[in-house]
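Appendix B, example 12.
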Amino acid sequence: MTTGPGIGASIGIALFPDTAADAEQLMLQADTALYRAKQEGRNTRRFYQAQMGAELRDRLALERDLRLALEGNQLRVVYQPQVDIRSGRLTGFEALLRWTHPERGEISPADFIPIAEESGLILQIGEWVLGAAAREAARWTAPLEVAVNVSAVQIHAADFVGTLRDILARSGLDPSRLEIEITETALVRDAGRAAETLEAIRALGIRVAMDDFGTGYSSLANLRTFRFSRLKVDRSFIRDVDHNRQSAAIVRAVLGLGAGLDIPVVAEGVERQEELDFLRRESCASVQGFLIGRPQGIEHFAEQTSGRRAHLDGGARPPLRVVG
């Protein structure tokens, strides 16, 4: 059982002799059930079930392989373009981590990032991604921006600001071209410490964006407390925004909030022209998604990063359809 001061508890329960034959097996099963309780949101209890053992073994194997992936060149960074919705000009990229397992093939970040966070590997992996993205962006002739997702574990690490300072020094990247994207999870754990870290990051000249805006616990309070360079509307609100009244109302509210606070809004997950048309009518600042461009190796955007082309299609006119 794990407890916090006056907060609650997570409990894993195993029964003798129902599932365990001896004390050692009983403790192992209770620990496995405790891991499941923590995984499902904490402050709850779970009884041991047989499939939990197989899932835990798979999780431990994936953690072991992730450690090896860092040393074996299995990780790579791909880049998804972000475009100004009015001009159609490419403004920058979001750097995204990918893992190609030698046996399992492509493993979703949704599967391995939580493991990296729980095991502490996210600190080493996150530093590698930041360094790779900064070095790559520093090579571009065009002064395009690069955004990198940062986890709550990184934000609360004691030396994170120092790590960023070292990355900028080694890469030579202008800090104004680097944007750190954080979710509200990084803010609710220790708001005071997070505020100090974010201010120190801003003091380096690095921009800070709130990712997945609208899906957290205290979006509005965070906007009052922290100064963000951009808000990123979660893709769940963009999906079908052109014919879903609830989604449309939420997105309009976020865009109005951004305008009132003078914070540009980026819409993620734009996959259909109708969604793009809606966002343009509502004066969204920037967009990204499969309709604009899929995440790819940076070599696919060589003409844009070299400054030879300002648009993804290379044309003089915006590649985004004009709304009448």
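Residues 1-6, 314-318 have pLDDT under 50 and may be disordered. Residues 50-71 form the longest helix (22 residues).
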